[in-house]
Write the structure tokens for this entry.
Amino acid sequence: MTRPRTLYEKIWDAHVVEQRPDGTALIFIDRHLVHEVTSPQAFAGLRASGRTVRRPDLTLAVPDHNVPTTPRKDAAGNRLPIADPESAAQLAALEQNAPEYGIRYIDAVAAEQGIVHVVGPEQGFSLPGATIVCGDSHTACHGGIGALAFGIGTSEVEHVLATQTLLLQPSKTMEVRVDGNVGPGVSAKDIILHITGTIGAAGGTGHVIEYTGSAIRALSIEGRLTISNMAIEGGARAGLIAPDEKTFAYLKGRPYAPRGADWDAAVAYWQSLVTDPGATYDKVVVIDAADIAPSVTWGTSPEDVVPITGTVPDPAHFADPSKQAAAAKSLAYMGLEPGTRMQDIAVENIFIGSCTNSRIEDMRAAAAVLKGRKKAANVKWAIVVPGSGLVKAQAEAEGLDRIFIDAGLEWREPGCSACLAMNPDKVPAGERCASTSNRNFVGRQGPGARTHLVSPAMAAAAAVTGRLTDVRELMG
Amino acid sequence: MTPLHQVEGRAIPLGLKNIDTDVIIPAHWLKTTTREGMGRGAFESLRADPDNLFDRPEYRQAPILIAGDNFGCGSSREHAAWALGDLGIRVVIAPSYSDIFSGNAVKNGILPVVLPQAAIDRLMEVATTDPVRVDLEHQTVTTPFQDRFTFEIDPFRKMCLMEGLDEISLTEKSEAAIAAYEQRLDAARPWMRPAALMS
């Protein structure tokens, strides 16, 4: 009889190549996703040392951060060049490196192109129980299907390319259990914003968070990917949600997923990927789903969360002196006064997209609010950026693109877009954006840009009224 | 990687909590295919203030940075470590770090020292006028005023920093174990090979 183990411990144990006496272990990496921003220096390192990619078959490359979200082909179907020379050079580097090392590459004009964390699960490349890495902190996302997935730096990208392993210290485990049912207008994004506000931006540091409870189980796979995506905003390098029948149904038939008898064997294995009764976590946080309102951030840390019905907090009311100082700085940057009702804050920009909220369900949620409505006159820039070409095609098949365009929003090509101010999609200095992305850091959406993180439905509601809005007021 | 034993010099008393890697190096500086020159973009939003700490003469080339809780949170960009290194920083002292940042720092020869807030507060005070000394071998931070703080560090990280080790070469010594694992994996979970690549 083996001792009861958490889901994290089971996945860890299944990937130990070599246990070291100092407590570290060499861990096998099942899947490596590569994008254009954090890989060029890793490939340069391989080249300089004469190394090769050990397992190109376990590696998938796709550009996402730098690609503009404007049309990529002209009327004749010819590929348009990327105007920014540095972005073009990064893309060119990936385009050259991938085939040189035998790595499968989804190019910028392929139908399957998209944000790497949308593409992985969508292609069935990401699988439950797998170890998945990518040079991007939102790799935590893939935990939504029960994979142990985490972001790595470029030195580690090179290490995985060369050896298909990483030398790691085991993490501590943390359970975040959300019990009960959420109310109307409350989405997966509101749940994870509420969790981040509750545990703090460093609440999960050193831990892998497993999200459990009936409110998590009730979520679709898209919703679970949204939750796990933002594990990193709570400090946890990885999030996990145990796979179940919904997960298997989501993955079945996807291009890289197992087929036939292999599929049955895989499902049998995946069904064992649950935390055993009696297993203990190092830390447990319990949240009542009924306490979660549609949520919004007021500051420059993702822990700065209030319900949309709330007000901008007074920094003096925080117990921790360093938080008082940080909050005062945040409010100065955000141009907000304590006591202001969140719903009175006007927004000039709307961004619906990012690896957090750009899947088909997110598109549907935003469209449901925007249907038959128009964006407010004070909203200058409002874009909807699907997470992949396949999400885009699906949304168009459902007529969602028409709803967005009729409401006065722009319907774009897939990519990371305005999440991170790396491509042409940026929020102007001093302006506000109701954004479905994951980070409200200083300058994240552009120098001086002021970000309020919200769900897709809440971003759509803000587009309609021109201010942060309780989406429940617009629900029929 | 340059080995690190002792570092002594001025320490920049930054001290803020939740300094994210977008603040350390904004995304537009990431559009490069090399590791060099990141220091120019380091802390760009803070350095927009002409009176910022980083550009004061006494802190130019300072080898130590003192920060608040959760330093290096957010994006996994190793460019943050490259930017700090390019500024000349070899040691960061903070109460806590994001997991990804502290790993990236060590891989670039930068020591992330963890000390409690009370020690940080004292060092912030000293740093306004005097140098700070960090000794990795003895795991101490000391000041000219007899302050002496000891810190913990993972032994493997300590060895990597002190010897300036290349981790890939180290892992390559485990080639036989990796190959054996791959064989076991193929036998136990053959379906883990991506289906679309097998046809």
User: Anything to note?
Assistant: Chain B touches chain A through 61 residues (CB under 8 Å).
